[in-house]
Specification:
CATH topology of the largest domain: Beta-lactamase
Organism: Rothia aeria F0474
GO molecular function, one term: glutaminase activity
Pfam family, one: Glutaminase
CATH class of the largest domain: Alpha Beta
Protein name: Glutaminase
Number of domains: 2
EC number: 3.5.1.2
Order of helices and strands: HHEEEHHHHHHHEHHHEEEHHEEHEHEHE
Helix content: 40-55%
Strand content: 15-25%
Shape: elongated
CATH superfamily of the largest domain: DD-peptidase/beta-lactamase superfamily
Distance between the termini: 44 Å
């Protein structure tokens, strides 16, 4: 049976196809000549499954969508302190090419506007790295996010660098504040090459899925950047990724995202998926008109908004029952689904409120597919307290859902594969 997801994507694309509003990025001659009717969308799951519809194999340039990924490389290469000393994390509320610098320090407000992105480009790789080696690191790093080698569109690069006067002005301003410490023209050349990398909408979806997968590329298994870096990048994307439309985006769509004047938009739903769209006509903010509409639809249909409160608190408990009689009675509390903080709290409340007829308790997580880190700590803590209170605790866990074997051993919690094994322990 064919998955319904591609059919869904076809339907959603059809719903926006007639929208001809917006303009091409005509300030870059090479981009002004693209086919304005191109339209595509792709969804990549964190396990590597990829779906797409429309012009998913159409090649275009990544443009500003490169910014969060290069920011991630800079954080990984230089560390948080050195990057944050040069680039802030505050929303600017201004267009992407404004000279948004702090009054006294000259530090760009965030890495998603051009001033910040030019600075983060200069921070990739080791200190004193040559511009050529830095560019190699950028291409290799973004290729690692995509899971395949990416190349630079030299025609687009030449077109952009010829009209890069504003970016050069920004770079010279940064140099005057010692935010940049090298030749501003060389940094702008590298930044422009970075924006000229060729991608497809499928590449972008997979790059977003790598962020959603906490830095691990779903297909290659490579940990491209550390998890702590991903948290920082997604946070900045959420507040700054859509420029001076970030507030509307946060309320209407509600996922970390980044747009580019090539017509692409990416979004990352942590722990779940990456999504990307491609449509070249742009609105006044520099965001794809049809791309924004598609993301609004995706968010509504799939419940992707990060402020959607999941129902795990109600559904975490599948069953609470007893097996055996007399002194051998075992109270079995069966969990299900994904357990987050709210779900773990619900489980703890169930354990606390249950009236026990014996001293044996089994926590069954065989129907649980994921437990967040904080929820793991909470479940381990309630098991520890039960053992202190004199209960014998069993964990029914076939798939290492709670992998802290050492903690379980110290608490003398027996890990079994089924409730039936309790009588054999």
């Amino acid at each position: 049976m064919r998955s319904p997801i591609p059919s869904y994507l076809d339907d959603v694309l059809a719903s926006v196809a007639s929208d001809k509003t917006g303009e091409l990025a005509n300030y870059i001659p090479e981009l002004a000549g693209v086919n304005p009717d191109r339209l595509g969308a792709s969804i990549a799951m964190v396990d590597g499954e990829l779906y797409g519809a429309g012009d998913v194999n159409e090649v275009f340039t990544i443009q500003s969508i490169s910014k969060p990924f290069v920011y991630a490389l800079a954080l990984a290469d230089r560390g948080f302190d050195k990057v944050l000393a040069k680039v802030g994390v505050e929303p600017s509320g201004e267009p992407f090419n404004e000279i948004s610098l702090e009054d006294e320090s000259g530090r760009p407000l965030n890495p998603m506007i051009n001033a910040g992105a030019i600075t983060t480009h200069s921070l990739v790789g080791a200190e004193n790295i040559s511009p050529e080696k830095r560019m190699e690191r950028v291409v290799e790093g973004l290729s690692a996010f995509a899971g395949r080698p990416l190349q630079i569109d030299e025609a687009v690069y030449s077109s952009e660098i010829e009209h890069a006067h504003r970016n050069l002005a920004i770079a010279h301003m940064l140099r005057s504040h010692d935010i940049l410490t090298e030749n501003p023209a060389k940094v702008v050349e590298g930044y422009t090459r970075q924006c000229s990398l060729e991608v497809t909408v499928k590449d972008l979806a997979m790059m977003a899925a790598t962020l959603a997968n906490y830095g691990e590329q779903p297909l290659t298994g490579e940990q491209v950047v550390p998890k702590t870096v991903v948290r920082q990048v997604l946070s900045v994307m959420f507040t700054c990724g859509m420029y001076n439309a970030a507030g509307d985006w946060a309320t209407q769509v509600g996922i970390p995202a980044k747009s580019g004047v090539g017509g692409g938009i990416i979004g990352a739903v942590p722990g779940q998926l990456g999504v990307a769209t491609f449509s070249p006509r742009l609105d006044i903010h520099g965001n794809s008109v049809r791309g924004v509409s598609l993301f609004e639809r995706f968010s509504s249909d799939m419940g992707m908004h990060v402020m959607n409160i999941p129902t795990v608190a109600r559904s975490a408990i599948r069953a609470n029952y007893r097996v055996g009689v007399g002194a051998e009675t075992v109270q079995v509390i069966q969990l299900q689904g994904r357990i987050r903080f709210a779900g773990a709290e619900r489980v703890i409340r169930e354990i606390v409120d249950t009236e026990y007829t014996g001293t044996k308790i089994a926590l069954d997580v065989t129907r649980v597919y994921s437990v967040d880190e904080v929820a793991q700590h909470m479940l381990l803590e309630i098991m520890r307290r039960l053992t202190i209170d004199g209960y014998t605790v069993y964990l029914i866990d076939q798939d290492d859902t709670l992998p802290d074997v050492e903690a379980l051993r110290k608490m003398q919690v027996a890990v079994l594969e089924s409730v039936d094994e309790i009588g054999l322990v």
